[in-house]
Amino acid sequence: MNCREFLGHVAQNCSHTLHSPNGTIESPGYPYGYPNYANCTWVIVAQEHNRIQLVFQGFALEEDFDILSVYDGQPSPTNLRTR
């Protein structure tokens, strides 16, 4: 497990890359709650000009604390698609 310090707490770093045309992304600990201070990044790699479709079958965040951001390319304000 890769960890980093976040406001005095140990944060789990869960980063993954998906290269296949189909796949499932799950939070650490699924189907139970994810750990506090988890910092997860999933990169979905597709061939140029291919469309990526995200379908959420189940989704829960801690209100006013957790964030989901979707970027087209590297994380930057100009690549942000939804938050």
From TrEMBL:
Domain CUB, residue spans: 14-83
Keyword terms, alphabetized:
Disulfide bond
| Claim: Disulfide bond is one of the keywords in the record | yes
Q: Name one Pfam family in it.
A: CUB
Q: InterPro entries in the record, alphabetically?
A: CUB_dom, Sperma_CUB_dom_sf, Spermadhesin-Link_domain
| PROSITE patterns the UniProt entry points to | CUB
Q: Coiled coil where?
A: none
Q: Which domain of life is it from?
A: Eukaryota
Q: What is this protein called?
A: CUB and sushi domain-containing protein 2
